[in-house]
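Key idea: predict the complex, not the pieces.
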Amino acid sequence: MSKKKEEIIVDKFEANPQYQKLREEYLYSINKRRISVHEREEDELTELEKSKYVKKAKRIRNAFIAYSVLIIIALVVVYPFLWMVGSTFKDSSRVFADIGIFTKKPTITAYKTVLNKYGGNINIIKALINTYTYVIPEVILTVISSLITAYGFARFEFIGKKVFYVLMMSTLFFPQVVLYIPQYILFSKWHMVGSEWYLPLIIPTAFATESYFVYMFIQFLNNTSKEYEDNARIDGCNYLGTFLFVVIPMMMPVIITSAVFKFTWASNDLLGPILYVVTPAKYPASLFVKMSMDSAAGFNWARILAIAFISIIPNVIVFVLASNIVVEEVGSEGIRG
Amino acid sequence: MNTLRKSKKNIGFIFILPWFVGFLVFKAYPIILSLYYSFTDYNFFRGVTTYTLQNYKDMYVNQTDRAALIVTIKYVFMTVPIKLIIALGVALLLNKRSKMVNFFKVVYYLPAILGGSVAIAVLWKAIFNDNGLIHGLCKMVGMQAPKFMTNPFWALFMLGTLNIWQFGVFMLIFLTALNMVPKELYEVASIDGAGRMKQFFYITLPQITPIIFYNIVTGIVVSFQDFNGPFIITRGGPLGSTTLMSLMIYNNAFKTFNMGKASAQSWVLFVLLAIFTALAFITQKYWVYQPEDDGKK
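Result:
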């Protein structure tokens, strides 16, 4: 009974034109939404795809710009160097006339005269040999003494360690300029100025006097775990053995980097040789290059540049050979500190 | 047990013993000696005759001494910021690139290896000569190159370029630092709608301030002590405009052998360097990002 009543009501309701209108509108809106949803999905898809392409294009464009700028800067950076190499093959009168690297009429005149000896019975080859008679001992001694010191600081406890450490670190930024004068007085008292074996240059390096390297090694050791060393100790390896066979192999990248640094610094050094090398026959390359520039009457630039170029070839070779390691280590230098 | 621990203590000291001997002989003793001589009129051949403060007074009173001081400060203020900006710019360009990164790293670092050599100083002289490479390049584009060897301003600028050319060290350190900025920070920022510029100024820059600080300090130390450039290229000229303090000290100590005066000047240089470094250290709490101490340190 009641059901019937309800049906009647519903029928009545559905018969109402107002309701029918509403219903139509409702269905229409549902349909519309369905359609619009569909449409929108299509839109979104294409937009997504589009944005993907746009992004990719943007990325390629950005990379293109970045690499162009990088190449331009690289050219600016190496151009002086390339120009120097190129100029050594120019006729001396053309060195400044050609701003390009290559010349129309290349010549090797500069290299022919490069080996001519100066009054002091020295040429660039002999000067280079002189250079490496002290640079190589300096490199070896610096690395060994700095390693030993750093190992002591990083891995042992002893009385007064903190004080020693502060003393060591305080000399890190201490300007070498202050030390030149008293050290010169010291070595002249010891009669080592003009020493045939470059003793004033070599001796200090045996005592880890360059705090920079000690600091670099300590930072490396502080950032590596002691586990391997402890294991080696437990296995019965003594301190020396642990040091030689565990620590040193582990530190190879930073050791190589330090060696390259010391090699270039020592061979670039000019002030040291000026103070302590007296006889021209003993001049190292740095001093020899300066001397040949100063004494060249009328500046035979092609020849001077040839001498200069030869003097840095060993540095370039050493750097290029170790470049991958050095570049990595230098990058992490600031981070560890 | 006790003896073992004792021997262990000795071993630690034995490792640093060579350094300590070297420190006493080649650092501590010379430093004291230098400080002593700075208050005397010590001449290498004549020895000490009187004690005096004149060496330090001259730094202020004497026109040429003061000029060297000012030129050195100018030089540092010119080289360090430019070098930093170029290094950071190049590092940003190289950051997150994959192709040829190592090649570029090596190329940009090469000047740092060669820059200190006499050969490159000679090359610089050839480049900036009155009829040198720069002169030729400027002529090509129809410009008149400045007279680098005779104009005081341009002479100092030229020396600066030799220093700035060696930006590779800073660049490599920046590059590593950029790589270590947490990626999540950028992700969060880009969700929040921060653009590239905002990301750089609000994330990258604050995150690498410790490295900027490190580079500033090492940059100051290096620039204050530059010697080869003024010594070989300009010999301090024209009119003393490129006589950095390092060169003046050398001239006083080893040309006229007035080592007392030179010692005083080297101490002034040291104090100057210390002041600048200290300034960097004191101000660092205002601008250097201090990571939360997670107790690991």
